[in-house]
Amino acid sequence: MSFLNSLSITGSALTAERLRMDIALQNISNAQTTRTSETDENGNPIPYARQQVVFEERGLDFSGMLQAKRRETRGGGVRVTQVVESERDFIPVYDPDHPDANEEGYVMYPNVNTTEERIDLMAASTAYQANLTALSVVKSLALKSLEIGK
To answer: Is residue 65 pLDDT above 80, yes or no?
Structure first.
């Protein structure tokens, strides 16, 4: 594994985990948002839907495999392929006085569990910190290798 390849892998992980933290924070901040710009077929407002990040390995394509045979690998790492809405049902709460209540008096709240989001946020933060540590090790190795020539 080359020096630049390890930087690329760590950098991709930092970027992906940062987006994961941003999405978790967005979910937490919208946990009580009962109205978005969309409406259902009855004209009722649709609440905020929980967002989830989908990661994918940043693998090598065919030309990358050819380069790998020459030991010039530039693949590896992770990337975010998409941000998807959760398929969980919205949470109905009976509150007929709420402005977003439907005909039966229920308000649909987002399918966001703040405890789950906090756990996701802690996991993403821990992974981000681990990648910062790996980046620090790569930096330290690079500096030590530069001292060899002195």
So the answer is: no
CA atoms within 13 A on the CB side of 76: 16
Does an H or E element contain 91, and which? strand 91-94
Environment class of 15 (CB within 10 Å of its CB; exposed 0-12, middle 13-18, buried 19+): middle
Sign of CA dihedral 57, 62, 66, 67: negative
How much is the mean pLDDT over the chain?
87
Token look-up 């109905």 returns 92
| 3-state secondary structure labels for all residues of 98-140 | CCCCCCCCEEEECCCCHHHHHHHHHHHHHHHHHHHHHHHHHHH
Using the CB atoms, write b or e for 88-122: b if 16+ within 10 Å: eebeeeeeeeeebbbeeebbbbbbbbeeebeebbe
* C-beta of residue 54 within 8 angstroms of C-beta of residue 64: no
73 pLDDT tier (thresholds 50, 70, 90): very low
Amino acid at 26: Q
